[in-house]
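tokens incoming
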């Protein structure tokens, strides 16, 4: 019913920046919250940042001060601005969309690689 599509990943040098985008589309839904998770090889998936419709945000300690999550509610789109990227940020980043009265929906993931 709801499709979630991420974009914006890529290869960047340490200290560089990337901006991820995630758009949700479908019929008969209203978003409660959206967020970004990431998973590196051999590691558990972890929350990076999340934001509610009302603008309440939550960040992992490892990205505070470097990443910023924001939304365009009219477009059902969430962004993750990633600055001062570090090699340990390398992972597949997944977008999650939580729907009022419904399940969570996940994107396909986008690869972020931070390397010199």
């Amino acid at each position: 019913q709801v499709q979630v599509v991420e974009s914006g990943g890529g290869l960047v040098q340490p200290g560089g920046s990337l901006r991820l985008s995630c758009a949700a589309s479908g019929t008969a839904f209203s978003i409660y919250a959206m967020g970004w998770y990431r998973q590196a090889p051999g590691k558990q998936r972890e929350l990076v940042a999340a934001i509610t419709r009302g603008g309440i945000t939550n960040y992992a300690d490892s990205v505070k001060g470097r990443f910023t999550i924001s939304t365009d509610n009219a477009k059902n789109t969430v962004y993750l601005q990633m600055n001062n990227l570090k090699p340990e940020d390398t992972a597949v980043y997944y977008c999650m969309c939580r729907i009022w009265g419904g399940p969570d929906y996940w994107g396909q993931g986008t690869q972020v690689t931070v390397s010199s």
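note: The two ends are 41 Å apart (CA to CA).
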